[in-house]
Q: What sequence folds into this?
């Protein structure tokens, strides 16, 4: 028998759990699928500190007591909105508590197929169950969208991997590893490699590894607040606008939005990583290719017109994530074909609805519409209540008709 529910949420990361908490609070008819917080629990460097400040590291719910700040205070865990970086272990513990407290009915199954049906959508789970839902929310996060440099895609997995998925790097202890990139993931991976006694070097096209400015508790706060306002995605006016005006961002022309997404907020590292990074750095190097030589790999780069060859045992591409609907393996081709898109990410309404009625997308899939805010969990504070309100409105309409 196929069960029917009003809303199915796919994914139980910060976005999916936040939406579920808002829907749960108003008694909505929904189901949510996926293991809780797997990107964070299983795929990020174990000893990592969050890049986002404490005040921007919450999952969203209507309950004011659901914040990381309150959770830390109740347990005597050291916390400050901005001055103390949040350890990954603390964030994971907090978010698992959040799930149990606000989303107790999470179902751990994976969604293995999603297609249109007469009443909305039909979903198949990895335990074989099928269900129908009037609305589906894609809160599928980042793991489908790992980006590898095209010139390296021919290398075997033994020689090349993505930074996502490396909890620790001890298996490379004593070996030579090149980490590609100059962003937060690259710096995190390099520092983790140093700690695991890996002979590590960073290779990046950028000429500089950039870090957030450290917060200064002694700075004159009103002056700083005007010249360099703080926001959930980092300090500065541009970040402030992106954080506080996602709806305005959505109304900007496509070309502006795409440019802003690409240029603003390169993935700078947290200020607290600057002193820790000791790895040798090949900066200003453009990656031209690589060749496998036995069980080693030679990376070929160009810097100021000169060619370089750098030999290593393994390359880790810390080259980010590129959202693309074509990479969601569970989505039916015919459904995907009906979604109006911009660079293969869905165009979304003000309420995060795609051009297919009843199909919504949040998180990184929404970044080309709502801006860089959607690349951070703090974006769930904007997205989750809006999507929940829209879904509840639709549900009430149906109840009134019935
Ligand atoms: C190293 C690193 C550090 C970062 N640090 C920060 C930071 O400090 N602050 C910050 O705000 N952001 C940070 N980010 C970005 C962060 O990943 C996002 O902000 C956040 O995870 C977005 O939440 P999400 O729910 O969209 O995605 P995710 O956390 O990726 O959650 C999506 C979930 O959906 C699940 N899923 C996918 N497909 C299915 C399916 N078919 N069925 C069931 N479940 C499915 C996934 O397994 C996953 O558990 C960092 C990213 C990386 C890689």
A:
């Amino acid at each position: 028998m196929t069960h029917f529910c009003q809303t199915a949420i796919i994914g139980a990361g910060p976005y999916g759990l936040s939406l579920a908490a808002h829907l749960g609070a108003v008694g909505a008819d929904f189901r949510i699928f996926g293991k809780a917080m797997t990107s964070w629990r299983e795929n990020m460097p174990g000893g990592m500190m969050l890049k986002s400040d404490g005040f921007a590291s919450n999952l969203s719910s209507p309950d004011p007591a659901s914040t990381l700040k309150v959770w830390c205070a109740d347990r005597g865990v050291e916390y400050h909105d901005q001055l103390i970086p949040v350890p990954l272990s603390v964030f994971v513990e907090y978010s698992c508590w959040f799930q149990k407290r606000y989303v107790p009915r999470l179902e751990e199954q994976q969604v293995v197929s999603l297609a249109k049906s007469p009443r909305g959508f039909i979903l198949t789970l990895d335990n074989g169950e099928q269900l129908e839902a009037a609305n589906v929310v894609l809160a599928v996060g980042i793991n489908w969208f790992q980006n590898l440099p095209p010139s390296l895609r021919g290398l075997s997995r033994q020689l090349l991997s993505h930074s996502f998925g490396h909890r620790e790097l001890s298996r490379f202890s004593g070996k030579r590893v090149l980490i590609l990139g100059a962003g937060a993931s690259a710096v995190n991976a390099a520092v983790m490699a140093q700690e695991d006694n890996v002979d590590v070097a960073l290779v990046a096209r950028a000429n500089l590894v950039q870090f957030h400015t450290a917060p200064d508790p002694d700075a004159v706060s009103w002056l700083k607040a005007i010249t360099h306002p703080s926001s959930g995605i980092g300090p500065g006016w541009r970040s402030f606008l992106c954080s506080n005006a996602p709806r305005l961002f959505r109304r900007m022309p496509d070309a502006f939005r795409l440019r802003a997404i690409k240029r603003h907020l390169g993935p700078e590292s947290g200020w607290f990583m600057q002193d820790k990074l000791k790895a040798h750095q090949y900066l200003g190097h453009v990656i031209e290719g690589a060749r496998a030589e036995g069980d080693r790999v030679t990376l070929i780069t160009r810097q100021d017109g000169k060619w370089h060859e750098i030999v290593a045992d393994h390359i880790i591409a810390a080259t980010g994530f590129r959202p693309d609907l074509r990479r969601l393996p569970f989505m039916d081709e015919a459904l995907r074909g009906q979604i109006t898109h911009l660079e293969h990410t869905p165009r979304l309404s003000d309420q995060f609805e795609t051009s297919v009625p009843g199909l919504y997308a949040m998180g990184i899939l929404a970044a080309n519409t709502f801006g860089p805010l959607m690349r951070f969990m703090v974006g769930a504070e904007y997205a989750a209540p809006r999507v929940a309100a829209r879904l509840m409105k639709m549900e009430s309409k149906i109840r009134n008709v019935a």
